User: Which sequence fits this backbone?
């Protein structure tokens, strides 16, 4: 039992305990209803069933649509339930929820002096009610509190208008198909070849009353986790917390959760070892020292090898306790004939086993402190091993350590603030003074959606950051990279320039593939893609855009280069390529990071000239693949890529 049916139960419970969300909320999987006013349906709103309406008892009764509001009571606040516009302060009811007033809902609400005008919602035409001159197109509000007429209402194209009575600095913005000179002339904020486009939920522009890019508000579907929102209905998962959409399946600890996607009363209880505040946060019902435990009941249960020790959940067993494998023992030694744990151990005061210094290092013991002996970074609590000795944290060691929140940045020490997309604990860690869902900036990193999810068995974590092509962080090697002599359906071996660990194996070379990826097994990847996990292609492999591509046509190329100095080097591959038989080139770049072993892929141009078979990865596989045993897939044969998308595969 794990993060499945209890999410639904939690959403049901919160409808009776919150003043902002009532009724049984379900995940929205179809485009949002764009109608204004009553949304027909049954069983969601309050009805007059003979029960006396009491507008002050905190209970949903009588004609109320939410407790103490709607029906015969006062109108409901934004986000509460409704059956008709009159149930809402905003006078806008959609999908049984009161929406936030907007400047495009065809209703006079909020601070507006007229319908969708005045009070900060654009200027009103002549004769419409006003309070100050700035409410009016003419700039003049008469003594009778109405606007005088302006030149933007004369049916003529004059002043600096770009179309009749619209555009320019003085008049309202133009609607779709009207003429324009720049984006500011258009309601959609898109001026295409001198004509305003019509706002849609797929134009990659935040317009209409959207709360984030192409989602939220009155017209568009609910937003995915991590995107901005005002009320719950703005979110695909019907949960808006502190201005961001969150859920119990987003791979992030947010809202009232005590650990990632668990605890807090709304999400599933947490498993053993996860954080908690009270016993009800835990699947086992016990919270001790802030962690969920069930390894203290004195009973041999779960997958323990001896009472309260061994297995995958409880702590390793001490000397003399029963074991089934070496991992059951604190000493990492299980004597086969007697099935008991033997010394050495990590607390015996002797340098033994795989320890790199006394009772530390080697992977099984605690990490060593500064000055102790080590073989690699993981042997040290700072993550830095130089010359066989654990080093103190610095702001230039390429590792997130000490008080840092990101790599050599953030935290309470002397390191500089972090750039966008580095890890953060709060705004003070970031250059931009914005920390969103644990990442600097206003976007955060959004976990992979879909059936496969954002993690695989090995522990890689996949997430995306919607950016613009100009702000993508991958290095540009278009002028400096080595040209890979790739024709159609070909591959070439390249040196990485450092040791890179992928699915537990370290590599120093790889094969760059013409068909949109790299493989750690020499040979040609094949042109026919498969969904992951798979044994086809050339696993282990990183699939940036696995499709039938041909970089040898239309001026295309593939380049690769190793940048930087140890221990912070990067291996970069850049594909500037068309699809086989096509002439329109796409552009995307992969970066392998030394030390962290993380992978980044930047998508600059995802248009290959054929929307039905090639564009945005509709005929490709994108992900990382160990082979048939394990993989982490972002998409397969789905148009899921976009210009400016950054995909991160974070090593466990």
Assistant:
């Amino acid at each position: 039992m794990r993060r499945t049916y209890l999410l639904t139960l939690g959403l049901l419970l919160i409808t009776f305990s919150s003043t902002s969300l009532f009724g049984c909320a379900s995940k929205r999987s179809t485009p949002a209803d764009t109608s204004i006013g009553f949304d027909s349906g049954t069983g969601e709103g309050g009805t007059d069933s003979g029960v006396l309406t009491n507008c002050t008892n905190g209970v949903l009764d009588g004609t109320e649509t939410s407790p103490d509001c709607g029906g015969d009571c006062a109108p409901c606040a934004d986000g509460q339930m409704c059956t008709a516009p009159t149930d809402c302060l905003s006078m806008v009811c959609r999908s049984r929820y009161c929406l936030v007033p907007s400047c495009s809902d065809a209703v006079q609400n909020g601070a507006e002096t007229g319908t969708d005008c005045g009070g900060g919602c654009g200027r009103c035409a002549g004769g419409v009610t006003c309070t100050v001159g700035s409410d009016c197109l003419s700039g003049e509000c008469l003594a009778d509190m109405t606007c005088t007429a302006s030149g933007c209402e004369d049916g003529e194209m004059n002043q600096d208008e770009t179309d009749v009575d619209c555009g320019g600095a003085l008049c309202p913005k133009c609607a779709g198909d009207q003429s324009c000179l720049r984006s500011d002339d258009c309601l959609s904020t898109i001026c295409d070849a001198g004509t305003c486009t019509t706002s849609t939920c797929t134009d990659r522009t935040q317009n209409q009353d959207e709360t984030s890019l192409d989602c939220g508000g009155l017209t568009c579907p609910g937003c995915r986790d991590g995107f901005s929102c005002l009320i719950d209905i703005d979110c695909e998962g019907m949960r808006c917390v502190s201005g961001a959409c969150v859920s119990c399946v987003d791979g992030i600890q947010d809202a009232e959760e005590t650990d990632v996607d668990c605890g807090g009363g709304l999400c599933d209880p947490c498993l053993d070892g996860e954080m908690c505040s009270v016993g009800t946060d835990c699947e086992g019902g016990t919270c001790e020292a802030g962690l969920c435990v069930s390894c203290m009941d004195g009973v041999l249960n779960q997958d323990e090898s001896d009472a309260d020790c061994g297995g995958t959940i409880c702590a390793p067993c001490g000397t003399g306790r029963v074991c089934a494998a070496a991992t059951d023992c604190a000493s990492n030694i299980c004597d086969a004939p007697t099935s008991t744990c033997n010394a050495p151990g990590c607390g015996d005061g002797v340098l033994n086993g795989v320890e790199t210094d006394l009772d530390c290092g080697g992977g099984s013991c605690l990490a060593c402190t500064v000055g102790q002996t080590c073989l690699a970074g993981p042997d040290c609590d700072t993550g830095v091993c130089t010359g066989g000795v654990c080093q103190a944290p610095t702001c230039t060691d390429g590792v997130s350590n000490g008080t840092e929140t990101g790599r050599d940045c953030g935290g309470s020490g002397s390191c500089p603030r972090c750039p966008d997309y580095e890890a953060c604990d709060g705004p003070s860690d970031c250059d931009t003074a914005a920390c969103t869902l644990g990442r600097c900036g206003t976007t955060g990193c959004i976990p992979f959606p879909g059936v496969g999810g954002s993690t695989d068995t090995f522990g890689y974590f996949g997430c995306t950051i919607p950016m613009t092509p100009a702000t993508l962080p991958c290095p540009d090697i278009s002028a400096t990279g080595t040209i890979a002599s790739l024709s159609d359906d070909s591959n070439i071996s390249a040196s990485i320039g450092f040791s890179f660990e992928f699915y537990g194996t370290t590599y120093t070379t790889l094969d760059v593939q013409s068909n949109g990826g790299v493989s750690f097994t020499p040979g040609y990847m094949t042109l026919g893609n498969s969904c992951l996990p798979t044994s086809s292609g050339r696993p282990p492999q990183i699939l940036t855009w696995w499709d039938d591509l041909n970089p040898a046509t239309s001026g295309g190329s593939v380049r690769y280069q190793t940048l930087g100095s140890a221990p912070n080097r990067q291996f970069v591959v850049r594909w500037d390529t068309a699809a086989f038989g096509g002439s329109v080139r796409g552009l995307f770049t992969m970066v392998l990071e030394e030390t962290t072993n993380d992978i980044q892929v930047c998508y600059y141009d995802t248009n290959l000239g054929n929307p039905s078979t090639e564009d945005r990865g509709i005929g490709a596989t994108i992900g990382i693949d160990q082979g048939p045993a394990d993989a982490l897939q972002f998409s397969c044969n789905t148009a899921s890529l976009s210009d400016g998308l950054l995909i991160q595969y974070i090593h466990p």
